[in-house]
Amino acid sequence: MIAADTNVWIAYFSGEKNRNTDLLDHYITQELVVLPPVVLTELLSAKGSTQELRIALQNFPIIEPDPQFWIRSAHLRKTLLNKGLKAALADTFIAQSCIDAKVPFITFDKDFRHYSSFGLKLI
């Protein structure tokens, strides 16, 4: 299983061809893609989001947070911020979702590298 960041999905749906979109396509054909809830929210709330997109995305399982997810996310974000590192709230939720599910993550966003030492596996 893998998860992909919003930016990778946008590139994929735009028809871009690169390493990340090729990986996403490969895992989609293998039915091994899961969606962090924040990625799903970002995609469906984006300007230009369509009914077709909603229908396409509903075929993917969502990483469901457990009740302690919010506490772990807060601790993760606070730790990064205390180190002077960038830790956007949405990014923290995405990273924590993937860490909890032990799912590797595909992204173009270099800020996610800060989450690697907490268990986020970047592809």
Give structural notes.
The protein is mostly helical. The protein has one domain: Rossmann fold, CATH 3.40.50.1010. Helix content is 50%, strand content 3%. The protein is built from six helices and two strands; from the N terminus they run E-H-H-H-H-H-H-E. It has helices spanning 6-13, 19-29, 37-45, 51-57, 69-82, 89-101; strands spanning 3-4, 105-106. The chain has a two-stranded parallel ribbon with strand order 1-2. Helix 1 (6-13) packs across helix 2 and helix 5 packs across helix 6. The longest helix is centred in the middle third of the chain and has 14 residues, at 69-82. It is globular and about 40 Å long. It starts with a strand and ends in a 17-residue tail after the last strand. The model has no long low-confidence stretch (mean pLDDT 96).
